[in-house]
Amino acid sequence: MPVEETPASAMRFGRMNLMRYLIYFGVNPAALAYAMTTLGSAMINNIFSFYYVKLFLNTYKISEGAFHQSQVVYMVWNAVNDPLFGYLQDNSRVPCCSQRRLSILYGAPFYSLAFLLAWFPWRSYSPDDWLCGLHLVVALCAFDGMLTFVLLAQCALFAEISSHHQNRLRLIKYSQVASLIGSSSVLFCGVVSKNMENFSAFQAFTVLIAVISCLCMCYTGIHSESRFDNKGSESDLVSVDQTPQSAFSFSMLKTLMWQILTNRDFQLFVLMNFFQVFMLAFFNNFTMIFTEHLIPPDVLPSLAKSIMYGAGFICPQLLVLSCQSLLRGLGYYKIILFTFYVEGGMAVIMLLLGPQHYYFLAFFLTINMVIIQAAFSLFGLPLADIIDTDLQQYKRSSPLSSMVFGTNALFTKPGQSLAPMMVLNILNQFGYEKLKDAGNISNPSTLESIHSVMFYLVCLVPLCVATMQILAWRPFSIRNSHTVDAKYIES
């Protein structure tokens, strides 16, 4: 008698056929499945980070006090959710949390819905409306919470799919291609909405992007696998206590956190990464504002500015893809260090040239966005090496991938809030809050003052941050992982 085909067996058969087709065309199925979450998240993350500050400041007219309060709440939430989600994903026995692909599969719809919260006002806001401040708090916390849950699982997959440097470079290659495609959402969003001038078109575009993003991440949730998915749910305790863990334990969380935090390479990486996150937020949130004020419309029309913004999100992936051979030959350590010297050197040149060189200023802003994002795209490599070191040092049965990434985020994500808070506070001291609408400026000296402050921020912030990053990154000791074989046996 023929065996009745079940939905599960039919799905397995379909997945096998899909993998055969992908292999036939030279596509690595594991890398493709991993990269689909990068594609989906890049579509919505870049739009969110690039537009939300301008939306709430210039369109919703949020007060400075409410903006700062929302950023403080956001920082606190960031400090709580990353290590807790990391601990949950590494120690939970519930499949939707413990299995990386299921975390992505079930989290993707909520992640995409959270992305949409910011773009639809809860009512017609008046200037300094209290509800606008609440709206920003909810939008930031919901979006970051789901981003953390989904992308922690993907970061863990990066470390767990393979321990070989070459295989990890393949994941980065596929991920950068996906990010390249996903980052074009900023370009198309700017063109479709005329840089948010047509707000209805902007809202419609965000809904479309949210749907596409969700489908992409669900592909990862169906087709991706970690090497540790089938190793059981035994707890990963330190050698001093091998008893099974039956429930959430703050003492265990404290022990594991301490083991991670006492790793000197982790400390150096976190310090360097904090400044990188700060710089990413600085340019993502304020490039559009700086460009509109410092570069006249007759020099760069709206379409040219849209292309400039899009290039800032698309070119980083092209740069990383073109540096694959350098990553194999030199390793990530030297390349990341080199980017810091480039950032600092360009800031000095821009400072010496002055604000009247508009085309070079546009080039400087774009190149900074490109270099900072490109270097940030490589940060999974040192974190994966830190995870490997931790796995060996404490002889764990499976790595604490999510906890390492989550603990890193605990200290670095506050940079996402500190950057807009600090910059906005400086700008408002020179009258920016009264000058949001350039057409209503009656005092030319005030406008000149705010433009001068913006220019010095554009130059001095990258210079100072690059200096701090060089000092933090130079002592990092894991420099030659690209020259050694796998650090543990894959099974």
What does this protein structure show overall?
The protein is mainly α and 491 residues long. It has a single domain (27-228, 264-482), classed as MFS general substrate transporter like domains (Growth Hormone, Chain: A). Helices cover 75% and strands 0% of the residues. The chain has 18 helices and no strands. The protein has helices at 7-24, 29-59, 64-91, 95-98, 100-116, 130-161, 165-193, 199-223, 250-261, 264-294, 302-322, 324-329, 332-353, 358-376, 380-393, 401-412, 414-429, 444-473. Helix 5 runs antiparallel to helix 8. The chain is globular. It is found in: Membrane. It is a multi-pass membrane protein. One of its GO terms (cellular component) is membrane.
Shape: globular
- Ranges with pLDDT <50 over ≥5 residues? 231-247, 486-491
Please estimate the helix content: over 70%
How many distinct beta strands?
0
Strand content: under 5%
Distance between the termini: 37 Å
What key attributes describe this structure?
mainly alpha, 491 residues, Growth Hormone, Chain: A
What is this entry, summarized?
The protein has 491 residues and is mostly helical.
Layout of helices and strands:
Elements (H helix, E strand, L loop, with lengths): L6 H18 L4 H31 L4 H28 L3 H4 L1 H17 L13 H32 L3 H29 L5 H25 L26 H12 L2 H31 L7 H21 L1 H6 L2 H22 L4 H19 L3 H14 L7 H12 L1 H16 L14 H30 L18
Helix pairs in contact: 2-6, 2-7, 2-8, 2-10, 3-6, 3-16, 3-17, 5-6, 5-8, 6-16, 7-8, 7-11, 10-14, 10-16, 10-17, 10-18, 11-14, 13-14, 13-18
Subcellular location: Membrane
Protein name: Transmembrane protein 180-like
GO cellular component, one term: membrane
